[in-house]
Amino acid sequence: MKKSLPLLYGLLMAPVFLFAQSTDKAGPKTVEDVYLQSSVEVQVVRSLVNEQGRSEKIKALDFIAKMVETGKVNDKSVDVIVLLDQLGGEGTTSEIRQNGRVINDYPEVRRQAAELLGQIGGDKAREVLLNMAIKDPEPMVISEAVYSLGLIGGGDQSARVESVITNLVKSQDAIRPDSNFAFAAVSSLEMLGKKNNGRVSQEVFAALIKIQNGNYITPVRKKAESVLAAFTKY
């Protein structure tokens, strides 16, 4: 059963230089190599992703979601992660402009991409999510990316993941407190802490205290309080 973030608001792309590690002597595979080896399903999804309209990109996400649910996609599915990376940058890292206006700013597309990356997991998905969390301007997208990072866990990047999330808490709290983001951040830090048997950085405690005492709705502040208390029992 998939797990997604509670409380969230219910292509002409630049080349993506993501490489899949090869086990043969030919060296690393390029995106073009991966393309040629992709299944027909993935090629259909790629065609939808490369269309300019929002509806086509939503169809691509629906297609990927079904592939995830049926086990056709996992953390080794580099071709699909590349496509989710593209979808996660619609209107941010990849802009299409018309008369000076960005016409491919699709926050919901980016949010769904972040959700699917969290379900797929793995190091490559984590790296895409970290970039999304840092670069995306929309709180709902950042919230989903942060929650998905908690689902995946930090692995050998635990310190970096914690740093990104706690820095986001600081900046969001200072600019415009967002209860949805705060809930996602607390939940993610809780999951990261459990995966590390309670070993987290001092910045995590500071972020939880900031949310506990911040201008957020009561359930969010209570959640931060309970997570903070749980960490003291490890």
What do these coordinates show?
A two-stranded antiparallel ribbon has the order 1-2. Helices cover 62% and strands 2% of the residues. By secondary structure, the protein is mostly helical. It has helices at residues 31-37, 40-49, 54-69, 78-87, 107-120, 123-135, 139-152, 158-175, 179-195, 202-212, 218-231; strands spanning 97-98, 101-102. A hairpin with a 2-residue loop joins β1 and β2 (101-102). It is built from eleven helices and two strands; from the N terminus they run ααααββααααααα. The chain folds into two domains: 1-141, no CATH class; 153-234, no CATH class.
Identify the strand order in the major beta sheet: 1-2
Could you say which overall geometry the principal axes of the C-alpha atoms support? globular
Distance between the termini: 28 Å
Number of helices: 11
What is the strand content? under 5%
How helix-rich are the residues, as a percent range?
A: 55-70%
Poorly predicted runs of 5 or more residues = 7-25
Supply the helix-strand structural class. Answer: mainly alpha
Number of strands: 2
> What is the total number of structural domains?
2
**Radius of gyration, CA atoms, in whole angstroms:** 18 Å
